[in-house]
Amino acid sequence: MAADLRVIDNKRIRGIIMRRLLSVYPTPLKVQAISTALLASGDITTPDISAYLAYLEGKEYINVYKSEQDERLPSATFPPEMLVVLEWRGVDVLEGTTDDPGIII
Predict the structure, then answer these.
(1) Is the pLDDT of residue 3 over 80?
(2) Is 105 within the bounds of a domain?
(3) 101 within domain boundaries
(4) Each residue of 22-45: pLDDT tens digit?
(5) In this model, does residue 67 exceed pLDDT 80?
(6) Residue 104 belongs to some domain of the structure
(7) What's the domain count of the chain?
(8) 35: which residues sit within 8 A by CB, 6+ positions away?
(9) For residue 47, cis peptide bond before it (omega within 30 degrees of 0)
């Protein structure tokens, strides 16, 4: 039961992140800005949103701008100053053109 709730919560938070990025599309946001907004709204309790961003990046719904220094970090590491932008695949999910059961819009 708790695992099911965690899965639902993960899907919901991914959707919130995507909607936040859509609100400024095509402008990128810093990871820290997304994290701070999620903390302020009570959607997350710790500032680490790496797992959500890794999922969205893996699906190519977002693009993460990495500097040369960032390229040396482990793949699922997203420093606060890193920039994230919504990609067209992400827009398609938000507009209902593409369905993804891993995201609650």
Answers:
(1) no
(2) no
(3) no
(4) 999 999 999 999 999 999 999 999
(5) no
(6) no
(7) 1
(8) 44, 47, 48, 49, 80
(9) no
Q: Are 64 and 78 in contact (CB under 8 A)?
A: yes
Q: Is 42 within a domain?
A: yes
* CATH number, residue 14: 1.10.10.10
Query: Residue 59: which of 24, 25, 4, 11 has the closest Cα?
Result: 11
Give which of 55, 62, 61, 37 is closest to 47, Cα–Cα. 37
81, 32 Cβ separation under 8 angstroms: yes
In the β-sheet with 29-30, what is the strand arrangement from edge to edge? 29-30, 83-86, 62-65
5: its two tokens: 């709730």
Answer whether 44's CB lies under 8 Å from 17's CB. no
> What's the rounded Cα separation, in Å, for the pair 30 and 82?
5
Two tokens at 23?
Answer: 């609100």
Residue closest to 86 by CA, chosen among 30, 31, 41, 25: 25
Residue 89, both tokens: 């695949």
Cα separation, 90 vs 21, in Å, equals 9
- Alpha-carbon distance of 38 to 100, in angstroms, equals 21
